Amino acid sequence: KTIYVLNGPNLNLLGTREPETYGSDTLATIEELCRTTAAQLDVAIEFRQTNHEGEMIDWIQQSRLDGHALVINPAAWTHTSVAIRDAVTAVALPLYEVHITNVHKREPFRHHSFLSDVAKGVICGYGIRGYQYALMEAAR
Ligand code: DQA
Fold first, then answer.
1. How far is the CA of 37 from the centre of ligand 1 (A)?
2. Are strands 44-49 and 95-99 parallel, antiparallel or unpaired?
3. Residue 131 maps to which CATH number?
4. Number of C-beta neighbours around residue 40 at 10 A
5. 10 in ligand 1 pocket by Cβ < 6 Å?
6. How many domains does the chain have?
7. pTM for this prediction
8. CA–centroid distance, residue 119 to ligand 1 (Å)
9. Which residues of this protein are annotated with the site description Transition state stabilizer (predicted)?
10. Where in the chain does DSSP place strands (E)?
11. Is 4 noted as a catalytic residue in this protein?
12. Cα separations (Å) of 75 from 13, 26, 66, 100, 133?
């Protein structure tokens, strides 16, 4: 069984993207943190990022085959995508929603999430450590 760690649009630019908001860590650093954490927890992970909504939906659907849980930072799709929400509810795996920033102290359009009410848990505002905390819960 595998924990899918899926990242949405523009997260490939972490490190250079608005560093005052998102910090200087890159997606590669997040992947490293997730791999180290997964090894400590003795779980397998699939770590991926895409800028294409349909690809994200395909991955969520595929997780039905061997997935144990989903850890997703849906990035901007958090606030826009009924399709990603529907994919998550279709696969019926526990979802842990992660945001690097505290979306609630940002623009009002970031306060609503199409995923939070179908998530097992939501972590935001703890930087990249949020991924680590989500993995710890997802591995239980
Ligand atoms: C984000 C928050 C979203 O509002 C934003 O669109 C992102 C990243 C975060 O990790 O803080 O791209 O999900």
1. 22
2. unpaired
3. 3.40.50.9100
4. 12
5. yes
6. 1
7. 0.97
8. 16
9. 17
10. 2-7, 44-49, 67-73, 95-99, 121-124
11. no
12. 12, 15, 24, 9, 18
Residue nearest to atom 12 of ligand 1 (CA): 75
Q: Is the pLDDT of residue 1 over 90?
A: no
What does the pLDDT look like over 13-60, one tens digit per residue? 999 999 999 999 999 999 999 999 999 999 999 999 999 999 999 999
Q: Which residue has the tokens 């279709």?
A: 90
Task: Please determine, for residue 11, whether its predicted confidence score (pLDDT) is greater than 90.
Answer: yes
Give, for ligand 1, the residue of 13, 25, 78 to mutate: max count of ligand atoms closer than 8 Å to Cβ. 78
Q: What is the spatial distance between Cα 96 and Cα 108, in angstroms, rounded to a whole number? A: 22
Q: Is 100 in the pocket of ligand 1 (CB under 6 A)?
A: yes
Q: Domain limits at 66?
A: 2-138
Mean pLDDT of the region 97-122: 98
User: In sequence order, what DSSP letters do the residues of 14-49 get, joined into one string?
Assistant: TTTS-HHHH-S--HHHHHHHHHHHHHHHT-EEEEEE
Complex ipTM: 0.99
